[in-house]
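Sequence and fold
=================
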Amino acid sequence: MPYRLFSATGLEIARTLGAIIYANPFKAERLELNKRFFELIRDQGFAGEPMAVADGKPRNLNIESYIEVSQHLVKDTLAKLRSGSGKKVDAEHLKVYEHLVYFYLFHWVLEDMDAYILRCLEYPSDNRRWDAFGLLEKKYRECFAPFASVLSPAYDVDVFASFCFQIRRTYYHTFHTLKGNSARLNRMRARVWDSVFTHDMRRYIRSLYDRMSDIYTLICGPSGSGKEVVARCIGLSRYIPFDREQMRFERNFTESFHAINLSALSATLIESELFGHKKGAFTGALADKIGYFESSGTYGTVFLDEIGDTDPLVQVKLLRVLQTRQFQRLGDTRTLAFQGKVMAATNVDLIKAMEKGSFREDLYYRLCADQIRTPSLREILQDEPDELNILLNYVCMKFAGEEEGKRLEAECQDWIRRHMPASYEWPGNFRELEQCVRNIMIHGEYIPHRREGADGNEWDRIRSGALSMDELIGYYVRQEYARTPSLAEVGMRLKVDPRTVKKYLR
């Protein structure tokens, strides 16, 4: 009978940890795996709360438990291997051990990876050495060397380091940049994660990590809803190999994202920015210029914002690049290879644009393999009204720093509560919220955008006191009913009889 490295409980714990590292952290599957893990180790004295504070610093007890338990299992397994020397080891146990080691080492080096990410963001032009690699390599060999005769790790240590860093970068950008706690935002985070790794990370690591440039991403959503932020998260999270000899990654990830607003430039300038040009190619071309398609390299991303407003001639040239992965500088006859990834965004309904003939169908179907929709602020607040305070906190801290940001946040919350209805739709989305904060910070007030349509300029009439009491109540009831089209629920929320709700709806 093959020699077993784990007890029954140890095997289940190790399997669970091995599954966690490949799970999308923003999906229910990951939460279930976490729950299962802590159920299994409950008898080992887990403290309880995922987050705690010690010595003024936050401690993630989840991470601490991960490291403690996985380290114990690895050490215990190595000891069992030594005691069972010469015996045939169970193949399933070997595979579980391999993924357990990956999990353990990823979390063992987690803190240093976070510090390295922050250094790269602080010094974007400096491709720094990652000195922790030496320690990671030593640890990697300690864990696998005793199994050399029966187990060959799936990755060399430098490839493993690249995957670890990519996973942590993706989590950092997705969690820290896409602000908010609503269910809609979390679903979008999950979709962003899938855009980087696909829904099957094991397959991604086996064969897709160096092929994702061929899959283009289209981000749709209303203006101001954060489409470029989403694109940046994905673009800064791409796989970048680690150069063991140089002790650094082949490129600083902060330099790998290039954005261009296609609606803000003429067709000639768009081509110059994207394709580059030779000196004298057009009036004003005083020197050779390298375009984004060329400078992006293998690991870069070109983000085409407002692609729905693009000139038809530019659409043709973009399609050619996406189809052939080749381009030419303006005024040059040489053909160059495009090796990076393309992402595009629009607030235009491209299906309707195709029906009208203003957007090419073949270009759309080149772009739509991977689609993400950014929700409007109105949709988010309809689901979770308290989300507004979370977003205000983020914006105020960004504008005024931590200490003054708290005062600004309180001022903004108070002004919005006193002067704007809870049903305000924020037509400018997150961008409008930022401008609202700026206006209150500078002028002590904010004049919202006038909404045309069914309500006409009712908001202006509310502010001026022109509405009668019945008109004002009717307006509020209609807004509440739009959020939840149920007479009973609106009545319960407003503490009135449903028949009263019905009267005002009429």
The chain has three domains: 8-180, 233-375, 379-505.
